Amino acid sequence: FDFIKGNIRHFAFFPPGGGGILAHSLARVASLLKVREADQSGDGIESVINKVESYLAEGKLAEAADCLEESVQGTQAAEIVAGWVKQARNRAISEQAVVFLQSYANSISLT
């Protein structure tokens, strides 16, 4: 996630397929100058990044993926995060399957 944070900040300002060179340059400068939000209560991109990082710290991959996907929907950032969201969901499914199989193995060993 750390790898794509900078791009999310930059491309969250653009609609899909939109923005020329000047718009991209201004967005890059704005994303570098933007003050980082400490709380998670807002709906700005920094609040979203903070929420996603909190979910990741708690091991809630599916929630992190959902939060990020919903927040960047309708922007160019949606294209950037699509791969990460898919990988996060796949990992969450895999981890859930491992927990299920471990529980099943434990129940079999007890009988």
From TrEMBL:
PANTHER family: MICOS COMPLEX SUBUNIT MIC60 (PTHR15415:SF7), MITOFILIN (PTHR15415). GO terms for biological process: cristae formation. This is Formation of crista junctions protein 1-like. GO terms for cellular component: MICOS complex. Keywords: Membrane, Mitochondrion, Mitochondrion inner membrane, Transmembrane, Transmembrane helix. Pfam families: Mitofilin (PF09731). It is found in: Mitochondrion inner membrane. Coiled coil: none annotated. Belongs to the MICOS complex subunit Mic60 family.
